Structures are given as C-alpha cells and as structure tokens.
Amino acid sequence: MEARQLEQAVALYRGDLLPGFTCDSLPFDEWLRQEREPLHRLALDALFELTTDGLTHGDHHKAQRLARQQ
Q1: How far is residue 68's CA from residue 11's CA, in Å, rounded to a whole number?
Q2: Are the beta carbons of 54 and 68 closer than 8 angstroms?
Q3: How far is residue 8's CA from residue 52's CA, in Å, rounded to a whole number?
Q4: Cα–Cα distances in Å, from 61 out to 13, 52, 69?
Q5: Is the pLDDT of residue 1 over 90?
Q6: Is 90 exceeded by the pLDDT of residue 70?
Q7: Which among 47, 40, 41 has a CA at the least distance from the CA of 63?
Q8: Biggest alpha carbon distance in the chain?
Q9: Which H, E and C letters describe 2-70, residue by residue?
Q10: DSSP 8-state secondary structure symbol assigned to residue 8
Q11: First vs last Cα of the chain: how many Å apart?
Q12: What's the DSSP call for residue 1?
C-alpha cells in the first residue's frame, strides 16, 4: 500500500469493532473476537509502517505522533 492509503486507513480506524457491545451468545462473541483481532493487527501494522517511513524521511514529529497511536 502507498503511504497515502495507509494514512487514510489509520485515520478511519477508531479502535475495536463494536466496543462495549455484549451479547449472550458465545458464537457471536467468538465471531466478534475473530473480527477484531485482524483489524487491530492491520491498524498496528499500518501505524508501524508509517512511523518507520516518517523516521526514514526525517519527519520526526509525524513519527512521534504515529508511534503514540500504537
């Protein structure tokens, strides 16, 4: 992905899918957990890549801001 696309993805990510949502269904809870984990991992990977890119290009303020989001 290009940096611009990663930045858009990071800007759209708002944390866990359906935070605070509870349901008395173990299968649903398991499904929700399985959906949350890869989305969270993708967000962290994007933040890491953008942070590294910022450091590589000398944009330390951007790198610091992105690192704090991790």
Answers
A1: 14
A2: no
A3: 17
A4: 21, 12, 13
A5: no
A6: no
A7: 47
A8: 50
A9: CHHHHHHHHHHCCCCCCCCCCCCCHHHHHHHHHHHHHHHHHHHHHHHHHHHHHHHCCCHHHHHHHHHHC
A10: H
A11: 19
A12: -
Of 38, 63, 37, 33, give the one whose Cα is nearest residue 51.
63
Token pair 């991992």 in the structure block, residue? 41
What are 45's two structure tokens? 């990977």
Q: What pLDDT digit, counting tens, does each position of 9-60 carry?
A: 999 999 999 999 989 999 999 999 999 999 999 999 999 999 999 999 999 9
The single-letter DSSP state of residue 19 is T
The single residue listed with the structure tokens 């704090």 is 68
Q: Which amino acid is at 19?
A: P
Residue for token digits 């690192």? 67
